[in-house]
Write a structure and sequence with these properties.
The chain is mainly alpha-helical. It has a single domain (4-330), classed as Hydantoin permease. It has helices at residues 22-33, 42-46, 56-84, 88-96, 102-131, 137-153, 155-182, 196-208, 214-218, 224-253, 255-260, 266-271, 275-285, 287-304, 310-327, 334-341, 344-357, 360-363, 377-390, 397-410, 420-443. Helix 3 (56-84) crosses helix 17, helix 5 (102-131) packs antiparallel against helix 14 (287-304) and helix 14 (287-304) crosses helix 15 (310-327). It is globular and about 70 Å long. The protein starts with 21 loop residues before the first helix and ends with a helix. Its main location: membrane.
Length: 444
C-alpha cells in the first residue's frame, strides 16, 4: 500500500510521518460517520424519549447541531496529536502523568475491542442481508476480521486508499439510495420540538465517541488545520447525510420492524434497484470502523508497551476481536460500551482546558517518567458524574437506576433541555479552570 517510511512507526520511539492532508482526514472521518446501523439510529433521532416524537425538520436540525458540537470536540482533541506527534492515550501522560494515564488507556482498550467486535458483527449481518444464509455468519466474521487486521497493519496506506477510491463509491451509493427512498416513502407526520435537546444529546454522543482515537490519526496530519477541518467537515457532512437517509430508510422498512430488529433497516437498501451492489459498497466500507477500533487499541496498548512492534499487537487484537464476534452476542452489550464511552467526554474537556487555556501546550510531558497529576482526576470524575445526572439517554437498567437514586438523594431535577455531553464538558472545564486559578494564586 505504501513504503515503510510513509507508514506509522513500528514502536512508540519512532518519528511519525506527516503525510495526511485535509482530504485524507476528511475522507477518513466521512467514512467513519457513515455506519450501517447509523441508518436505524434515525429512530432515536426522531423520538429520543420514546413518547415525544420530533418533526422531521427538528430531527434534521438536531442532527446538524449535534454533529457540529460533537465533531468540534473531536477536532479539538485531534490538534494536540498533530502538534506533539503522540497517539491519544500517550497524550494523556501530559494530562494525568504516565502511570495515571494507564487508567483511561485500559478503559479505551476495553471499549475499542468491544466496538471492534460489534463492527465485525455489523459487517457480517450486512453481508447476510445481501447473500442470505448461503454463506454462514462465522465465515463473514473471519473474512471481515482478516480485512480489518490487514488495514490495521498498514493504517496510513489504508487511509489513502479510502480517499482515492472508497469515498467516491460511498458518495455515489448514498445518492442512489437517497433518490430511491425519497420517492418511495414519507417519514412520520406531526411531531414537535419538545425532545430537541435529547436528540442533540444523542447525536453528540455518536460523534464524541471518536474522541479517544482522534490523535491516533491526527499525529500524521500535515497541520493542525488539516486535522481539525477534516474531522469537522468530513464527519459532520457524512453524519447528517447518514441520519437524514436513515429517516427515510426507517420509513420504508417500518418503524415497528426496525424497533424490533435494528438490522431490519438493511432490507430496503438491498431491495432497491441495484441495491445489492450499492449496499455491498457500504458493507465493505464498514471495515474502516472496525479498522479504526483495532488500530486505536494497538496505539493504546503501545502506551503500556511502547517498544513492542505494533504489527504484532494489531494481529493479536484482530484475532481477539474476531473471536469475540464469533463467540459473544456483541449486540447485547452496546449499552455497556456506551457507559464506558461517556468517560471520555469530560476527560476531553479537562484536556482541552489544560492544553489550550492553561498553557499546557508549552509544558506537555508525554515521556515515560511524566509525574502524576492527581488533581486532574477531580474535574474528570465530577464531569463524569455530571454526564449521568443530566443525560436523558438510556443505557443499562441498573446503571440508570443508580443515577436516578443519586438525583433524588441530592434533590436534583433533570430538566428536558439538559444535555449530558455538554453538562459533563461544562462541569469538567469549569473545575479545571478553578484548579488552574488556585495554582496561579499559589505561585504568587
Amino acid at each position: 500500500m505504501s513504503s515503510v517510511v510513509d507508514e506509522v512507526p513500528l514502536t512508540l520511539d519512532g518519528e511519525p510521518p506527516k503525510t495526511l492532508g485535509v482530504l485524507d482526514q476528511g475522507a477518513l472521518w466521512a467514512n467513519l460517520a457513515v455506519s450501517l446501523l447509523g441508518f436505524s439510529g434515525a429512530l432515536f433521532l426522531l423520538n429520543p424519549l420514546g413518547d415525544a416524537p420530533l418533526t422531521v425538520t427538528a430531527a434534521l436540525v438536531a442532527a446538524l447541531v449535534g454533529s457540529l458540537i460533537g465533531t468540534t470536540m473531536v477536532g479539538l482533541a485531534a490538534i494536540p496529536g498533530t502538534q506533539t506527534g503522540r497517539p491519544s492515550m500517550v497524550l494523556l501522560r501530559g494530562l494525568f502523568g504516565a502511570r495515571l494515564s494507564y487508567i483511561p488507556t485500559v478503559l479505551n482498550i476495553v471499549q475499542m475491542i468491544g466496538w471492534g467486535a460489534f463492527e465485525l458483527w455489523v459487517i457480517s449481518m450486512g453481508a447476510m442481508a445481501i447473500f442470505g444464509d448461503a454463506v454462514p455468519y462465522a465465515v463473514w466474521v473471519v473474512v471481515a476480521g482478516i480485512l480489518t487486521t490487514a488495514l490495521s497493519i498498514w493504517p496510513l496506506g489504508s487511509i489513502r486508499l479510502l480517499r482515492r477510491y472508497v469515498t467516491v463509491a460511498v458518495i455515489i451509493s448514498l445518492i442512489w439510495f437517497a433518490v430511491e427512498f425519497l420517492g418511495e416513502a414519507t417519514p412520520q407526520d406531526g411531531g414537535s420540538w419538545t425532545a430537541f435537546a435529547p436528540a442533540v444529546d444523542y447525536v453528540i454522543a455518536l460523534s464524541v465517541s471518536w474522541v479517544p482515537i482522534a490523535a491516533d490519526f491526527a499525529r500524521h496530519s500535515r497541520s493542525s488545520r488539516a486535522a481539525f477541518t477534516g474531522v469537522v467537515g468530513g464527519y459532520t457532512l457524512a453524519q447528517v447525510a447518514c441520519l437524514g437517509l436513515g429517516v427515510y430508510a426507517v420509513a420504508v422498512a417500518g418503524t415497528a420492524a426496525v424497533t424490533a430488529d435494528s438490522t431490519a433497516v438493511f432490507g430496503p437498501f438491498v431491495a432497491a434497484p441495484l441495491g445489492a451492489l450499492f449496499f455491498a459498497i457500504l458493507v465493505l466500507r464498514e471495515a474502516d470502523q472496525s479498522f479504526a477500533n483495532v488500530y486505536s487499541t494497538t496505539m493504546s496498548l503501545q502506551n503500556l508497551m511502547p517498544r513492542v512492534d505494533r504489527r504484532i499487537i494489531s494481529v493479536a487484537i484482530g484475532v481477539l476481536t474476531t473471536a469475540i464476534a464469533l463467540i459473544v452476542n456483541v449486540a447485547s452489550y452496546g449499552a455497556f460500551l456506551g457507559v464506558i464511552g461517556a468517560v471520555f467526554v469530560p476527560m476531553f474537556a479537562v484536556l482541552a482546558v489544560d492544553y489550550f487555556l492553561l498553557g499546557g501546550a508549552r509544558r506537555w510531558n508525554t515521556e515515560e517518567d511524566a509525574p502524576a497529576r492527581w488533581s486532574m482526576l477531580v474535574p474528570w470524575a465530577l464531569g463524569f458524574a455530571a454526564y449521568w445526572l443530566t443525560t436523558s439517554t438510556p443505557t443499562v437498567e441498573q446503571w440508570d437506576g443508580f443515577w436516578m437514586a443519586a438525583r433524588e438523594a441530592i434533590g436534583f431535577t433533570r430538566e428536558p433541555w439538559m444535555n449530558g455531553a455538554l453538562g459533563a464538558a461544562l462541569v469538567a472545564a469549569l473545575v479545571t479552570l478553578a484548579i488552574g486559578a488556585v495554582r496561579r494564586a499559589a505561585r504568587r
